[in-house]
UniProtKB/TrEMBL annotation:
EC number: 2.3.2.27
GO biological process, one term: protein ubiquitination
Enzyme class, spelled out: transferase
Record-annotated U-box domain positions: 1-51
Record-linked SUPFAM superfamilies: ARM repeat, RING/U-box
Keyword field contains Repeat: yes
Record's protein name: RING-type E3 ubiquitin transferase
Catalytic activity, reaction form: S-ubiquitinyl-[E2 ubiquitin-conjugating enzyme]-L-cysteine + [acceptor protein]-L-lysine = [E2 ubiquitin-conjugating enzyme]-L-cysteine + N(6)-ubiquitinyl-[acceptor protein]-L-lysine
Pfam family, one: U-box
């Protein structure tokens, strides 16, 4: 999708992590200019004799003032004082980094922001006030929205461990924002590797399993983004992602988003083995048969395709479904281009009978 840059930048800065038009989870938040569309617009103005409007300045290009720097430094210093000072400063930082892009930009040009910001959390104080922790983790999330900050934040040894800790404890908003920060940071492939190696999957999947409605979408977004890197798929599977995801799908929870993750994971042999043990195939075929969502059907049939070609002994179950309901044949007529391609692959093999079945 192509958007007017100031609009989509505002959308991202407000913390949204989905496409405004399709509602699909964004794999990253890095903006890429659409030169073709821009040239077409410019050509239209020229053909109609209209002066090309000056571009709207990106709201993230606000000037950083000395007052901003002074304010940031003052608030960071207060984080080393009394608990009441810390709470006041953390609350103000949370609000400023949400509302003012210039404050998020300051993070990248001030070298010691992270140690000062996380000082109250790094002291190992188990009695830290929940509101203070929430405000500080949310400030990390707000800083991470700025693309130039993502690498700096993720590579600091303090940050990822504290985000992982915040997945496990604190207010439900703290846990949600910690997952959202992991998602935002994972826009960079290098960060995907850092986060995957940190042991974050165990806690993300545990949080997904708990199923808090305020948290589950942020967690699913983070897992999906991390699993774009193939090595992380094995880590997610090892931590039980397949079973947890299928359980949620069977309970009709966040079906589109979770099936997208499962479709990614299904490229790994261990995921197919887990799905076979759980008995995922009947559930997937039922979803294809009953769902009205093209995206859901597409991801389901992609997973079924992988299962079938991994273990041809499933041909009988798929054939019986086809005899009873023509599930795949119907999808071959009405599905998306990707769904049709997967369905036709299955039907072609299915038509050749069980003599070709084998377990890969």
């Amino acid at each position: 999708m192509t958007y007017d840059r100031p609009f989509i930048q505002r959308w991202l800065n407000e913390g949204h992590r989905t496409c405004p038009q399709t509602q699909q989870v964004l794999s990253h938040t890095i903006l890429t200019p659409n030169h073709l569309v821009r040239d077409m617009i410019s050509q239209w103005f020229k053909e109609h004799g209209i002066e090309i409007p000056k571009p709207v300045r990106d709201i993230d290009e606000e000037v950083i003032t000395n007052a901003d720097r002074h304010c940031l430094n003052s608030l960071l210093q207060k984080l080393s004082l009394s608990v009441s000072d810390q709470k006041e400063a953390a609350k103000e930082l949370r609000l400023l980094t949400k509302r003012m892009p210039s404050f998020r930009t300051l993070f990248g040009v001030s070298g010691d922001v992270i140690p000062q910001l996380l000082n109250p959390l790094s002291a190992g104080n188990a009695d830290i006030h929940p509101d203070l922790k929430e405000d500080l983790i949310t400030t990390v999330l707000n800083f991470s929205i700025q693309d130039n900050n993502k690498k700096i934040i993720a590579e600091n040894p303090l940050v990822i461990p504290l985000l992982i800790d915040s997945l496990q404890s604190g207010t439900i908003q703290t846990r949600s924002n910690a997952a959202a920060a992991i998602f935002t940071l994972s826009a960079l492939d290098s960060n995907k590797h850092i986060i995957g190696e940190s042991g974050a999957f165990k806690h993300l999947i545990n949080l997904l399993d708990e199923g808090h409605l305020l948290v589950i979408k942020d967690v699913a977004s983070a897992i999906f983004n991390l699993c774009i890197v193939p090595v992380n798929r094995g880590r997610a599977i090892q931590e039980g992602a397949v079973g947890v995801i299928l359980k949620k799908v069977m309970d009709s929870i966040l079906v589109d988003e979770l099936l997208a993750i499962l479709a990614l994971l299904s490229s790994h042999p261990n995921a197919v083995e887990d799905m076979a043990e759980i008995g995922a195939l009947p559930c997937l075929l039922e979803i294809i048969r009953e769902s009205t969502s093209e995206r859901t059907k597409e991801n389901c049939v992609a997973i079924v395709h992988t299962i079938y070609f991994y273990d041809r002994n499933t041909w009988r179950e798929i054939r019986e479904e086809e005899k009873a309901n023509s599930t795949l044949s119907k999808l071959a007529q009405s599905g998306t281009s990707r769904a049709k391609r997967k369905v036709n692959g299955i039907l072609d093999r299915l038509s050749k009978g069980p003599s070709l079945t084998h377990t890969a």
